[in-house]
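>> Question from a student workshop board

For tomorrow's exercise we were told to take the sequence and the ligand below, predict the bound structure, and bring the output to class. My setup keeps failing. Could a helper post the expected result so I can at least see what it should look like? The ligand is alpha-D-ribofuranose.
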Amino acid sequence: MFEWVNTLRRVPPNVLVVGSANTDIVAKVPRLPTEGESLRGNSLSIVFGGKGANQAVALARIGARVEFISAVGGDYYGRLMKNNFKREGILTSAVRMVRGETSGTALIFVDEGGRNSIVVIPGANHRLLPEDMVRDENHFVGKDIYLTQLELLPETVEVGLVLAKKNGLVTIVDAGPPRNISDKVFPYIDLISPNETETEFLVGIKPITKKDYRRCAGFLLKKGVRAVVLKLGAKGCYYADDTQEVYVPGFKIKPVDTTAAGDAFTAGLAFAWGKASLEEVLLFANSAGALACMKFGAQPSMPYLDEVKSFLNSIRKSLE
Ligand code: RIB
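>> Workshop helper replied:
Here is what the output should look like for this input. Compare the format with yours to find the bug.
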């Protein structure tokens, strides 16, 4: 089991990530505040985040070759973020610094059970325009996988997906944060991966039972995507395409901070996609997601390949 991970270390997938980059300002709180409430927080931290950047960093840490198309502000945080991508081994020639614009920022509360609530101010992320994607088409050439999310302008996401298919890439969409996807975009998606909230937003059904999973995936397949992976948090994940379905339960862990666990999961999925059996791909993604829950912060919690491998080794016994 998992021998393919060593093969991928030697011949890593080439992934183009197109997405957001944020500075996360995180308050640890005893519990999430309610409307009108003034709570005393426990601590404040500033860490690197943003769905696109988290996934790019996670992919680089587990061993993919990663290029990132993004936009950061022409400010202190923009410079920090771009330098950080380079430190993580990510190709950054298509990361723009937008003069006069602030970097994307997320204000996050994390409670003692690791649950969060997030407000995102897009800043420079919304200055990455469809014409920028057209200008960057040469960056699509030679890549295997195209990974994007919904934290950019919808028209930028749309043009990116069209160009990715035109250039023969396998397209993976992390459906976060919850945003409408135009009907004409679905057929450009090979694999879509929404979490429970995003699934309910897109489909109108809360995925609670296996029957719900099937109905939710069926809805998205009918829209024209080729495969669906529902991220079900502690319950694991559910895969479906036109011919098969696979459910892989989650691991029993004590979450410290669930922020970006979905990003680690989708990065794991993109890394392993098409390289192993579906069960192993989903287990790999589940492990990356679980590990991200066990550390604080978005990018600080993205796991390295060795961590995923030892996590998989530790659970291997229970699987055989
Ligand atoms: O998925 C987690 C991310 O969502 C955070 O890092 C925050 O920046 C928001 O984009």
